[in-house]
Amino acid sequence: MTFAEAQAGVGTADAVPTPVLAARTRGLRKLYRNTVAVDHVDLDVPEGAVLGMLGPNGSGKTTTIRMMLGLTTPTAGEIELFGARLPEAAQSVLPQVGALVEGPGFHPFLSGRENLLRCAAAEPLLESAAIANAVDDALERVGLGAAANRRYRGYSLGMKQRMGLAAALLVPRRFVVLDEPTNGLDPAGTREVRGVIADLHAAGTTVLVSSHLLSEVEATCTHVAVLHQGNVVAQGELKDMLEASNAGLLVSTPEVTAAVDALRDNRIPARAVPDGLLVDLASTTAPEVVATLVRADIPVHEVHKQRTGLEDLFAQLTETS
Fold it and tell me: Tens digit of pLDDT for each residue in 12-44?
């Protein structure tokens, strides 16, 4: 059965439908002489998702992205974009992909607009008559409209980063790949990039974002893939991963000591914390905790799961893997 058939569910009667993938890698590996940069990476990027690719420096994020875009040849493994195998389908598939990888590179003595006009002229999906408007729209979208006629060599680091983003957005894309898109941006610029990503997501575009800013990933991404030492150590929906890492229940009650004693009498680990008590859910459930407290006549004012942030989850995955 082909990958496209698997995506459509052909031959899998009564099976749970397989999510449609914008990008997929299997056994992806890259060696640089004796150095293993990426080692058997299996990555799924669901169509329409905003996937944050996280990992310490040297974890293989940029190398994986470069192989997915045909910029680097894998040592081994398979890559598919929209169900089509690369590099065989590169000519038909890659025009649907916009990318900002390892920082932008433009002609220093040309203006921002002149640089983008040259990029637009090479776009196979952009008709000649639409080039001027596409360039102006892209410049305005990333906040460079007022600086469009300034020479690129005079741009700040943040402005150069915006130029790279503008080049990736010259035409509507099915898939946008952004490698550290907020590098060099001030807080206002970072918010603007977050807005661009939100707009792309709302339009149904799949976005892959590689970033060191965990707070930005948590604010913008629907899915996460964590790389460590060249391997994917975890991937999935962000909310599910955060909930799965939560093993605690915060309970608000005026009778903290009595509540802790009642739970411990029922072999449920609990301890007092400033906001009430924290219950370990490793061997029980939230409803059982509440039922135990109610049976003991302990008033329960509020109950909610302890929320692990992405930073804590990232640390757990990369320190124990």
Answer: 445 545 668 999 999 999 999 888 999 989 999
pLDDT at 88: 93
| Residue 271 phi, psi (nearest 5) | -150, 155
Looking at 122-182, list the stretches that DSSP marks H as alpha helix, in order from N- to C-terminal side: 131-141, 157-168
Burial profile 226-235: b = 16 or more Cβ within 10 angstroms, e = fewer: bbbebbbbbb
Place of tokens 């608000």: 252
Q: Which helix (H) or strand (E) holds 314?
A: helix 310-320
pLDDT value of position 9: 47
Between CA 136 and CA 131 the distance in angstroms is: 9
pTM exceeds 0.90, yes or no: no
Mode of pairing for the β-strands spanning 97-100 and 175-179: parallel
Strand 76-81 and strand 84-86: pairing? antiparallel
For 78-103, give the DSSP string. EEEETTEEETTTHHHHGGGEEEE-SS
How would CATH label the architecture of 247-305?
A: 2-Layer Sandwich (3.30)
Residue at 308: amino acid letter: T
Looking at residue 29, its pLDDT comes to 94
What pLDDT, on a 0 to 100 scale, did the predictor assign at position 1? Answer: 39
Range 19-242 classified under CATH 3.40.470.10: no
The ranges of the chain with pLDDT < 70 are 1-19, 244-247, 282, 307-308, 320-321
Residue 89: what pLDDT? 93
Running DSSP on this structure, what letter comes out for residue 253?
-
Helix %, strand %, coil % for the chain, to 5? 40, 25, 35
For position 15, what pLDDT does the model report? Answer: 52
Beta bridge partners of 51: 208, 223
Phi/psi class of residue 294: alpha, beta or left (left: φ > 0; alpha: ψ in -120 to 50)?
Answer: alpha
Listed in order, the ranges of the chain carrying CATH 3.40.50.300 are 19-242
Report the C-alpha gap between 118 and 105 in whole angstroms. Answer: 13
The two beta strands, 223-228 and 231-237, are antiparallel
